[in-house]
Design a protein that fits this description.
The protein is built from no helices and 23 strands. The radius of gyration is 36 Å and the shape is rod-shaped. Helix content is 0%, strand content 49%.
Length: 289
């Protein structure tokens, strides 16, 4: 047991059998004062600096889409009375409950009470976790246009022969890809034009938002149809780029292809980038003549 034991009595009697000496030995068994952690893990994320039992303050950074996480503490001395994570009792070597993260900095405290529960025998580790604010990036990262047309190649046994030709088209003005060079770069170009042959049947728009957390919506409207209602929405079919193309690092955003039928006259294509923070959006227009 811990604390002071019953005395151990030792009596010594001299040779004359009259002289005696009495000794009492009191043994006090102290409780452990060890209250350090042997390891501290932030599940799925790294802490900085690397864990050291004698370092008590750490930091970590997570993206905006991480709204909670867990910590796993490991004791140096398993006789410690308690581990508390944000004041809630926690088992040794087990993952904590989900700890909610607010935007900006959220401190997480891990308090250990040694076997000897004196106030001086408590240790507190802290991890300051910075959760990123949602991105407001609304830049378009890629925009290319190609078309499909049927071309007559000749006649064979009285039958007309045709072939399908896919062509790439230059945008006017040229697409501004300077935003890919730095997150600080932004494009002010919001209107592009291309001209295609009147035999073109389908137009393919290949595009992507710069930020992989943003969304891109593509719509098309035919502007010069006959009749009272000369603006008609055109169906747009979206699919990933067949070659799984991506915007170069560090963005690594996948490109999508948007196919639409090319009606005679002008077709207005709008590409709207909505940021991770949905309060921010930007629309780029492409007019196909």
């Amino acid at each position: 047991f811990y604390g002071r034991s019953e005395p151990i009595v030792v009596e010594v009697t001299a040779e004359d059998r009259e002289t005696r000496a009495r000794y009492e030995l009191h043994v006090t068994r102290l409780r452990s004062t060890e209250a350090r952690l042997g390891d501290l893990v932030l599940r799925s994320h790294e802490i900085s600096p690397a864990f050291d039992p004698d370092v008590y303050l750490y930091t970590a950074t997570v993206t905006h889409d991480v709204s909670s996480l867990r910590v796993i503490p490991t004791l140096v001395d398993t006789r410690a009375q308690a581990i508390r994570v944000n004041a809630v009792v926690q088992e040794n070597k087990a993952a904590s409950r989900d700890l909610p993260l607010r935007l900006g900095v959220t401190p997480i405290s891990i308090e250990i009470t040694a076997q000897d529960p004196a106030e001086a025998n408590k240790k507190v580790y802290r991890i300051d976790i910075t959760r990123a604010y949602p991105s407001t990036d609304v830049q378009l990262g890629a925009l290319e246009v190609s078309s499909v047309m049927t071309e007559r190649t000749g006649r064979d046994m009285g039958l007309m022969l045709f072939r399908t030709v896919r062509s790439s088209h230059k945008l006017t003005p040229a697409f501004d890809d300077s935003p890919l060079e730095s997150v600080q770069n932004v494009s002010i170009v919001a209107d592009y034009n291309i001209s295609v042959d009147n035999t073109v049947q389908r137009v393919t728009v290949k595009a992507a938002a710069r930020d992989p957390h943003a969304t891109l919506a593509v719509k098309a409207v035919s502007l010069d149809l006959e009749g009272n209602n000369n603006e008609v929405e055109v169906a747009v079919a979206a699919q990933p780029s067949p070659d799984k193309e991506m915007i170069p690092a560090p963005w690594n955003t996948p490109l999508y292809e948007y196919e639409l039928d090319a009606a005679p006259g002008r077709t207005l294509v709008t590409l709207t980038v909505t940021a991770e923070d949905p309060r921010h959006s930007r629309t780029v227009s492409l007019t196909v003549f």
